[in-house]
Amino acid sequence: MEATIDKAVLLTELDAPYPVSQEAIAFYREKGYVKLKDVLSPAVLEYYGTIISDLVFKLNTLIKPMEERTTYERAFLQIMNLWREDEQAKEFVFSKRLAQIATDLMGVQGVRIYHDQALYKEPSGGITPWHADQFYWPLASPNTVTVWIPLQATPMEMGPLAFAEGSQTVEIGRDVEISDESEKILADELTRQNFTMHDTPFDLGEVSYHAGWTFHRAGPNVSDQPRKVMTMIYMDKDQVVMQPRNRFQVADHAKWLDNVPIGSHPQDELNPVIFSY
Prior knowledge:
Layout: H1 2-15, H2 22-31, E1 33-36, H3 42-59, H4 71-75, E2 77-80, H5 87-93, H6 96-106, E3 110-121, E4 128-131, E5 144-150, E6 161-164, H7 180-192, E7 197-199, E8 207-211, E9 216-218, E10 227-236, H8 247-255, E11 273-276
Antiparallel strand pairs: 1-8, 2-3, 3-10, 3-11, 4-9, 5-8, 5-10, 6-7, 6-9
Keywords: Dioxygenase, Oxidoreductase
InterPro entries: Phytyl_CoA_dOase-like
Cofactor: Fe(2+)
């Protein structure tokens, strides 16, 4: 009986409102990201972290030795749309609390899920090069945001996410895929334009939200533990699907949007509304 009560408490937390301060909203809109403390309890992270980790190791197909991998493959194990694989993972991904924060930060009426992805940076895993996520997405509006949820405290040696503050408004590097090349091009250009890089640890329960066009990266994991992270990508519920501009967007249009007609809204089956006012 006790386990049932505990689960009910966890589900209540996942759907309970989180008060987003006006300061946090203003910071997000100016800087393109925000970090928020105590968004999820240790109990929620432990319970759902175990479920997510089990799915990652069950579904992972990347088993090459680290020295044989590309830079992208060394960055993390990447497992997507866990919500369609497991009902308990879906409970976490469909958290109204996390979606409500995204809605408030963007100042929209509600959000749909684009997709989720677990990002596990193994011990000795390499850097995640500078990139902007929306390069990959055939979405017309910049009202997109990713929540980055470490499933453990994430000190610097684990490679926490770092952000180029205010970079969501610049046009540089919007045609560069994540690679050694993007790391060099963007590092040079972001430095040349004097962008401040915010690179700090994450406490347990702390999460970040970053806009689709905000440039970000992560350092290597030099610890002896995997850096376990779950992410969800949200879009304005009234987002419009645009003509894909590169081969990645063509693939995303098929995989995450089911090839809905250009100029239409995403559909509810693959991209349901998670939170709405």
